[in-house]
Design a protein that fits this description.
Layout lengths: L2 H23 L8 E6 L2 E4 L15 E3 L15 H10 L5 E5 L2 H8 L21 E2 L7 H10 L5 E4 L3 E6 L2 H23 L12 H14 L4
Parallel strand pairs: 5-6
Antiparallel strand pairs: 1-2, 1-4, 2-3, 4-7, 6-7
Helix pairs in contact: 1-5, 2-4, 3-5
The structure holds zinc ion.
GO biological process, one term: pentose catabolic process
Protein name: L-fuculose-phosphate aldolase
Organism: Sodalis ligni
Length: 221
């Protein structure tokens, strides 16, 4: 096996394992959602419409930098925004997309998640924005995702779900789960009667302090 083939097999296995873990974490359902990893000049990404439990390494599709998939392979319908994230952020090496219940609930309400907890800093700033709606799989959605992620590692997608991007598959999956937890807390505050405008939140200066701490000490609290 050539080094590139070995790397591809390893990344493909990590993608499948992360897909299965999304199901165990309860942040995705059925064949919704998709995961990719930067590879060579393009990316490896889950195929369209295959149940995660049936995936093998050979099913993971390579898409090159022009958006052309391997002959005879059908990548996830959301390949456009995955590829666009890699092209706009050279420090991102994995992208996780799902329809997690609480994150999607907020996305339906077109609500960004505010700084209700210091862990919001893990996504890169004082909030997790919500990208406006566009039909799934379109170039229009890809542009909206890239705009929402300009200063963030994660965002919600209106009437759709969420996206998290990070330096590795493990970290992207971890971040996606943190976004869902933040969304759950925020949903519970709204259910308790808080209004979006009056929900208690941390000031931007404190989020900057936490972000700097994450950068120097890592994410352990
Ligand atoms: Zn989706």
């Amino acid at each position: 096996m050539q080094p590139n083939e070995a790397t591809r097999a390893l990344l493909s296995r990590q993608i499948i394992d992360a897909c299965l873990e999304m199901g165990r974490l309860g942040i995705n359902q059925g064949t919704a959602g998709n995961i990719s990893s930067r590879f060579q000049d393009g990316m490896l990404i889950t195929p369209t419409s295959t149940p995660y439990g049936e995936l093998t390494e050979d099913d993971i599709v390579f898409v090159d930098s022009r958006g052309v998939p391997e002959t005879g392979c059908l990548p996830s319908t959301e390949w456009r925004f995955h590829l666009a994230i890699y092209q706009h952020h050279h420090d991102r090496h994995a992208v996780v997309h799902n329809h997690a219940p609480y994150a999607t609930s907020l996305a339906i309400m077109n609500r960004a998640i505010p700084a209700v907890h210091y862990m919001i800093a893990a996504a890169g700033g004082t909030d997790i924005p919500c990208a406006p709606y566009a039909t799934y799989g379109t170039e229009a959605l890809s542009l909206l995702v890239v705009t929402a992620l300009a200063e963030r590692k994660a965002c919600l997608l209106q009437h759709h779900g969420m996206v998290a991007s990070e330096v590795s598959i493990a970290k992207a999956l971890w971040l996606a789960n943190e976004v869902e937890l933040l969304a759950r807390w925020y949903c519970q505050l709204l259910a308790c009667g808080y209004q979006p405008e009056t929900t208690p939140r941390l000031p931007a200066e404190e989020i900057a302090v936490v972000k700097a701490k994450f950068n120097s000490y890592g994410l352990r609290s």
